[in-house]
Automatic annotation (TrEMBL):
Family (UniProt): Belongs to the QueA family.
InterPro entries: QueA, QueA_dom1, QueA_dom2, QueA_sf
Classification via Pfam families: Queuosine_synth
Entry protein name: S-adenosylmethionine:tRNA ribosyltransferase-isomerase
EC number(s) per entry: 2.4.99.17
The encoding gene: queA
Annotated organism of origin: Imhoffiella purpurea
Cellular compartment(s): Cytoplasm
GO cellular component: cytoplasm
Keywords, in A-Z order: Cytoplasm, Isomerase, Queuosine biosynthesis, S-adenosyl-L-methionine, Transferase
Main location class: cytoplasm
Length: 340
């Protein structure tokens, strides 16, 4: 298949600019039957789709206040997006400015706090915080890095609504958005049903928003993201399998985490980088069902869900979602999918 096979036309007004009034107040589409016919529900109906022996797997990453604004000593304005912290005072970052900064350039944040450009590593810049560490700088001056298709600045409401309730391991620059729909009432309902929870960590990077630039998917270089699947999670999945339950991944980040940990054919603890590119033809080893939001046209995430539930059912579901005025992307509505 080729990149253009995953194109669809989305009216811009369907891109959600803010979350639903309540976390569980989003809509939920599920694909029913052998042909994957769309069915329209609400997210609060999710318990109807789950079974007591199922295991829900969440991503517990926390979004950093990773967007920093400053200026060069020449006066030019600079926007810094921290991609990954390498230590208390070193980081890899994206930098937007009128001219690409050279090694040795000083960037001054609010109140003059300096960052030094140490050089480049591919598309990223290596930065050193000269006086305060990056945790202190983000706490004092950082902004939540809302996705590029949200056409507004972050505000106080985003501080809570762009984080999941189980976000505890800081390191992401984008939220695992399927998890944003879960509130305490929903989690309590699921617990009362006997549904177990597990947590993995995948620190979502800016690469999740990068377009596929090659028509030939064999030539696409997948971005790298750090993840961890613990021995405890592997044990929970084994017990779920033994009782006949399903592994339900909350979001594509959990899918990528679990399938990376099983890349050699059996699920094992994993900690490190993944460049796993899941597209039609991929054989899933761990995940039986998933909850996911709607994804960008021609994106690797759209390719992942098409691999999971079938190309034709997914593309038909997206056409249905557009016709029924679903809300798209990070703050939008959700789908519940089962594998082919």
């Amino acid at each position: 298949m080729r990149r253009s096979d995953f194109h669809y036309d989305l009216p811009p007004e369907l891109i959600a600019q803010r979350p639903a009034a309540e976390r569980a107040g989003a809509r939920l589409m599920t694909l029913d039957g052998p042909n994957g016919a769309p069915r329209d529900l609400m997210f609060r109906d999710l318990p109807l789709l789950l079974r007591p022996d199922d295991l829900l797997v969440f991503n517990n990453t926390r979004v950093m206040r990773a967007r920093l604004y400053g200026h060069k000593e020449s006066g030019g304005r600079v926007e810094v997006l921290l991609e990954r912290l390498l230590g208390p005072r070193e980081a890899l970052a994206h930098i937007r400015s009128s001219k690409s900064p050279r090694s040795g350039t000083c960037i001054r944040l609010a109140e003059g706090s300096p960052l030094e450009v140490m050089g480049r590593e591919g598309a990223l810049y290596r930065l050193r915080a000269c006086e305060k560490d990056f945790d202190a700088l983000m706490s004092a001056y950082g902004h939540l890095p809302l996705p590029p298709y949200i056409q507004r600045s972050d505000d106080e409401a985003d501080e809570s609504r762009y984080q999941t309730l189980f976000a505890r391991r800081e390191g992401a620059i984008a939220a695992p958005t399927a998890g944003l729909h879960f509130d305490e009432a929903m989690l309590n309902r699921l617990a009362d049903m006997g549904i177990e929870r597990a947590e993995v960590t995948l620190h979502v990077g800016a690469g999740t928003f990068q377009p596929v630039r090659t028509e030939d998917l064999d030539r696409h270089e997948m971005h790298s993201e750090w993840l961890e699947v613990s021995e405890e999670v592997c044990g929970q999945i084994a017990r779920t399998r033994s009782r006949g339950g399903r592994v339900v991944a909350v979001g594509t980040t959990c899918v990528r985490s679990l399938e990376t940990a099983a890349a050699d054919g059996s699920l094992r603890p994993f900690r490190g980088e993944s460049r796993l590119f899941i597209r039609p033809g991929y054989a899933f080893r761990v995940v039986d069902a998933m909850i996911t939001n709607f994804h960008l046209p021609e994106s690797t995430l759209l390719m992942l869900v098409a691999a999971f539930s079938g190309y034709d059912p997914i593309m038909n579901a997206y056409r249905h979602a557009i016709s029924r005025r679903y809300r798209f992307f990070s703050y939008g509505d959700a789908m519940f999918l089962t594998g082919t």
